[in-house]
């Protein structure tokens, strides 16, 4: 299957969910090109951007699993290459 470059944007509203988010990212680590996390303390949220080089179904799987976590929102942007 063809690999695609994508960015998964994650907003964590519930601090308790951070551990589960990190577990999922660790599970998909072979596809992670890089990640950047920003704690936005004034709004009590954490924002993480993760760049993936992965088949579309893998990216969708990660994004879907993240979105099912309580207190977590995830959206994916895939580059046309």
Note the main attributes of this structure.
81 residues, alpha+beta, Alpha-Beta Plaits, 4-stranded antiparallel sheet, 2 helices, 4 strands, globular
According to DSSP, the number of beta strands is 4
CATH fold-level label: Alpha-Beta Plaits
Distance between the termini: 15 Å
- Helix tally equals 2
Radius of gyration: 12 Å
CATH class type: Alpha Beta
Element-level helix/strand string: EHEEHE
Adjacency order of strands in the biggest sheet: 2-3-1-4
* Residue runs with pLDDT of under 50 for 5 or more positions: none
Please characterize this protein's 3D structure.
The protein is of the alpha+beta class and 81 residues long. It has a single domain (3-78), classed as 2-Layer Sandwich (Alpha-Beta Plaits). The chain has helices at 18-27, 56-67; strands at 3-12, 32-40, 45-55, 72-78. The chain has a 4-stranded antiparallel β-sheet with strand order 2-3-1-4, covered by helices on one side.
Task: Give a brief outline of the structure.
By secondary structure, this protein is an alpha+beta fold. It has helices spanning 18-27, 56-67, and strands at residues 3-12, 32-40, 45-55, 72-78. The chain has a four-stranded antiparallel sheet, covered by helices on one side.
Write the topology of this structure.
Elements: E1 3-12, H1 18-27, E2 32-40, E3 45-55, H2 56-67, E4 72-78
Antiparallel strand pairs: 1-3, 1-4, 2-3
């Amino acid at each position: 299957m063809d690999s695609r470059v994508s960015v998964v944007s994650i907003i964590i509203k519930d601090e308790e969910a951070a551990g589960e988010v990190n577990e999922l990212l660790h599970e998909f680590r072979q596809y992670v090109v890089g990640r950047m996390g920003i704690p936005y303390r004034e709004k009590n949220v954490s924002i993480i951007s993760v760049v993936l080089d992965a088949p579309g179904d893998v990216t969708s799987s990660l994004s879907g699993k993240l979105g099912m976590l309580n207190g977590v929102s995830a959206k994916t942007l895939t580059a046309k290459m």
